[in-house]
Design a protein that fits this description.
Elements lengths: L1 H9 L8 E6 L16 H13 L4 E6 L10
Parallel strand pairs: 1-2
Length: about 70
């Protein structure tokens, strides 16, 4: 993921586009909720850092188990 983010930022063709990254159950939205995807959870920290350094270049979405149509995103 780090390589993808770096590549996205250095590609001049993509300077006006936004990369949307989706995870599923990587974060807890309730204090009593468990994190179900511990492998994706650290990616959130990486992407949040990239977002703070590059506003409007990345969107981070965490989905639950409800099926979703990609066109909806």
């Amino acid at each position: 993921l780090l390589a993808l983010l770096q590549e996205w930022l250095t590609d001049e063709r993509l300077t006006t586009t936004r990369l949307v990254i989706c995870t599923r159950n990587a974060i807890a939205t309730d204090p009593d909720e468990d994190i179900h995807d511990l492998t994706a959870a650290p990616l959130w920290g990486l992407i949040r850092t990239a977002q703070s350094e590059n506003p409007d270049r990345f969107t981070l979405i965490d989905l639950d188990t409800t099926p979703i149509n990609p066109a909806t995103l």
